[in-house]
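Per reviewer request, we include the raw input and output of the structure prediction for the construct analysed in the revised manuscript.
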Amino acid sequence: MKVNHWSLPNGATCVVADIEQSTLTCIDFWCKGGSLYERKDEEGMAHFLEHMIFKGSKNLKEGEFDLKIESLGGSSNAATGLDDVHFHVLVPPEKIEEGLKLILELLLFPKIEGGAFEIEKEVVLEEIAQNIEQPDEIIYMKLLKECLTPHRYSKPILGDEKTVKSINTKQMKIFHENHYVGKNCTLCIAGELPKEIYSIINNSKLKELKTISEETNKSTETTFNKGYKKETIPRLEGGRILKAWKLPPAKEQILILGAEIAATILCEGKSSLIVKDLREEKRIIESIDIDLQILEEGGLILLDVSCPQENLEIAESEINNILTEITKDLVTNKDLERAKKLVINNIYFGLELSSQIASTLGNQALWGRHQSILKSIDDISYWTIARLNELIFPLFNPDNAFTLIAEPEE
């Protein structure tokens, strides 16, 4: 797979990955326009704009984009995150030029007009209403609010009913104009590519993105609040223990790789330390998962345990003991090698499709991490038990966590 990077005069970055005999080619457009960039009382703007972009442009009627992409034999999707937003289309390799024209037309020139705007606002409000009924979502948002306030990451990506209701078309157009600009955007195309791919991209409407000289990214590292709280949650089945710790910013790739290895040692698979002890042998928990929320300004290590309500106290105590004692010869070389193999497998599994490759390369380029797509596999040998004990396991110290104990409402 050959990968090339370059920039357009307006600051937009471009990446192409030539994957021979790929059935579908992915066109993936990334923008530094996630919920991080919303102002006070604009919560939900980035996600609402994602919806509106698919509602047509100055040259495409509502629904026309979907019909045209489908007629090419393709499909489209989008996702808004805390840091960024991306839109992708999958098309047969011979339809790249047409697919690119269509997605750029939507992204650069969205209509954002009254009738469709008000209809889509109701769709977003319904999405919020459904979300706040879900126990998992309630717990997650409570945890983010507690441990990350006052940072923007503590706010829900969907916004809330009040903020979304107040958004108008003028505000949204300004948000689009301010953030969908050259230096904030990356285009990545991965799959089987025509020889003229560079000409296709360089002469596309991507060059019409505005150049903005002033810096709009006001980066502030996350604050993290340690603490402990108990909550009762409606419709929750059984007890839940959630713990969050501060994770280094996304640019600290080697440390994040170490955290992935540590999380795998602790609770991926039946032979992992916590699963083996507390689920397989003592049978006091039903499930445990550690997820890394990797974010540009500092992410989170999230531990999530499900157990019978009557086991909450003992389960938390046992988990804290393991996390406190982990640097004291709990981890063997066998544990480490098993975890490394699983992490390597996950990296490969995450790069099987052109859409996965485009997503990884596009995100890396957007945030200035120009590295081999398999660099993590090369870096994995850096991690020894001694280095994990020194640099990573202290991140999991229970004293540095925010802990949320969730119980069902009576």
